[in-house]
Specification:
Low-confidence stretches: none
Order of helices and strands: HHEHHEHEEEEEH
CATH superfamily: Vaccinia Virus protein VP39
Strand order of the largest sheet: 1-2-4-3-5
Number of strands: 7
Mean pLDDT: 87
Strand content: 25-35%
Number of domains: 1
Length: 163
């Protein structure tokens, strides 16, 4: 599916799909990436579904957060950035582990479903250099029942086919 999606992209000549674990990919690689973007498996020590593929996609058994952050820190060039999406409740744990890997927070966006709900996701960006200031903001997906917020539409318009 990744190969098919890449072929449909206007940047297909610049996309190289590599089907392997991050641990295998990182072996022997030199740092040099300017950007790493990751929507990692979220769940740690939680109830598993009967479907093994679904478990691999949703549970971090084969890629613990500490290992993901360490490998990411090794792959970035000196000015590189890494961006992750994670459950908002895990933010403090991620920040602690990231600091241990010499990753410094540059931006935090909290994502709410509705204005009156607590944030359920956090978008975190890191770099290898300590920052004097950290950019912070929030986004709300819905403004009302089944009505996407203007802010969310503007953010996702170019790539969310539903709009």
């Amino acid at each position: 599916m990744a190969i098919h999606n890449a072929e449909l992209s206007p940047w297909h000549s610049s996309i190289n799909v590599i089907n392997t674990s991050l641990q295998v990919f990182a072996q022997g690689k030199q740092s040099g990436y300017s950007l790493v973007i990751c929507n990692p498996p979220f769940f740690t020590n939680s109830l598993k579904a009967p479907n093994a593929a679904r478990n691999t996609a949703r549970h971090n058994d084969s890629l613990p957060v500490s290992e993901l952050l360490y490998i990411t820190s090794q792959l970035l060039n000196e000015n590189g950035k890494a961006a992750f999406i994670l459950p908002a409740a895990d933010t403090a744990n991620w920040l602690e582990m990231a600091a241990g890997c010499n990753l410094h927070l540059t931006h935090r966006t909290l994502v709410r479903s509705y204005p009156d709900r607590e944030p359920h996701r956090a978008l975190l960006s890191f770099c290898l250099t300590p920052q004097a200031a950290i950019a912070e903001n929030e986004i709300c997906i819905y403004s009302g029942r089944n009505t996407y917020s203007t802010q969310y539409k503007e953010l996702t318009w170019d790539f969310y086919l539903k709009f």
